[in-house]
Automatic annotation (TrEMBL):
PROSITE patterns: ATP_GRASP, DALA_DALA_LIGASE_1, DALA_DALA_LIGASE_2. The active site is at 10, 190, 331. Residues 142-353 form the ATP-grasp domain. This is D-alanine--D-alanine ligase. The gene is ddl.
Length: 363
């Protein structure tokens, strides 16, 4: 089952990701069932034509309610997926061996969906419940990575409602970070709700913007350095995870203060993705080591993209880990593996193989 869409603000990106996977997956090896989750949370039988889920003219695709609703297995050990249509008796679609959950953001990438699949004893691609939850929450992710001894930049967490109750107290905590600042929703992706702040007078508005996506807000100190990303892929048969060659994000459009949502998905001319990044061999090795260490620190499985800064002095600082990175053929994660010798279709197959290999339940 290729599962996509969902209730988060990244619904359209998830659909575009699904289009890439549906195009690449080996239909001779896998029987593919496409299931979409509408923005209201309804599970529906979806079109498995990759072209249906492409980004066209700057418009993101959307899962619409088809009235053909999907029922998942109801107990451990059952694999049958059924559909319900108006006025009809539920009919079986077949047994599902593995789910490829291509959802981004809350209610899909944050451990909620993973928990449901665990309850049904269904294998799935990617991180489990804990790693998904930790990777989604920038606050907890930084706590875990710091506890593992990994380098993380200075930050302040603004709990839900704290800035309204005590703006001066929160401002005093944040002021110590210096400028510029990056104000982010704690549990959102694709740069949704993120604001760069160069003047503290703009901080209340930035916190309000982030709060539209998540009541918990993270404020990070700006770090001078190159934006470097590294893909991580789980190891076969208990082997250690593998790291790709690093890539670099270079924002070229003057209208983008950073790598924001529009630069990522809607303005191809405003950003350049260099894969591989032009880095000295010792820095490449350091980036790869930190990426694998971050993957292991949160207990990740399957895949992740680790975003880092490389400072002018050559230090590597972790920005965040993404347990279900963008997966269109043009996204950084598959592009990094293409550069590292694993083409897109082979990468999709490897992720499915890893998911089928691992046991269900505690592991």
């Amino acid at each position: 089952m290729v599962l996509f869409g969902g209730r988060s603000g990244e619904h359209g990106i998830s659909c575009a990701t699904a289009g890439g996977v549906l195009r690449a997956i080996d239909r001779d090896r896998y029987d593919v069932l496409a299931v979409g989750i509408t923005p209201t949370g309804r599970w529906v039988l979806a079109d498995d034509d990759p072209d249906r889920w492409a980004i066209r003219d700057g418009r993101l695709p959307v899962v619409e309610d088809t009235l053909t609703h999907v029922l998942l297995p109801q107990d451990a050990g059952e694999r049958a997926v059924r559909v319900i249509e108006p006025g009809e008796v539920p009919r079986p679609l077949g047994d599902v061996d593995v789910v490829f959950p291509l959802l981004h953001g809350p209610f899909g990438e944050d451990g909620t969906l993973q928990g449901m699949l665990e309850l049904a004893d269904v294998r799935y691609v990617g991180a489990g419940v804990l790693a998904s939850a930790v990777g989604m929450d920038k606050h907890m992710m930084k706590v875990v990575l710091t506890g593992a001894g990994l380098p993380v930049g200075p930050f302040v967490v603004v709990p839900p409602g704290a800035f309204v109750r005590d703006p001066e107290g929160q401002l005093e905590r944040i002021r110590a970070l210096g400028l510029p600042l990056f104000v982010k929703p704690a549990r959102a992706g694709s740069s949704l709700g993120i604001t760069r702040v160069d003047d503290l007078a703009d901080l209340p508005a930035a916190i309000a913007t982030a709060s539209e996506h998540d009541p918990k807000v993270v404020v990070e100190a700006g770090i001078v350095g190159r934006e470097i990303e590294c893909g991580v892929l789980g190891g076969r048969g208990g082997a250690r995870p593998r790291a790709s060659l690093p890539g670099e994000i270079v924002v070229t459009g003057p209208e983008h203060a950073f790598y924001d949502f529009e630069a990522k998905y809607l303005d191809e001319g405003g950003v350049r993705l260099d894969a591989p990044a032009d880095l000295p061999p010792d820095v490449v090795e350091r980036v790869q080591d930190v990426a694998v260490a971050a993957f292991e620190a949160i207990g990740c499985e399957g895949l992740a993209r680790v975003d880092m800064f490389v400072t002018p002095g050559g230090d590597v600082v972790v920005n965040e880990i993404n347990t279900m990175p963008g997966f269109t053929p043009y996204s950084m994660y598959p592009r990094l593996w293409e550069t590292s010798g694993v083409p897109y279709a082979a990468l999709v197959d490897e992720l499915l193989t890893l998911a089928l290999e691992r046991p269900t339940g505690l592991r």
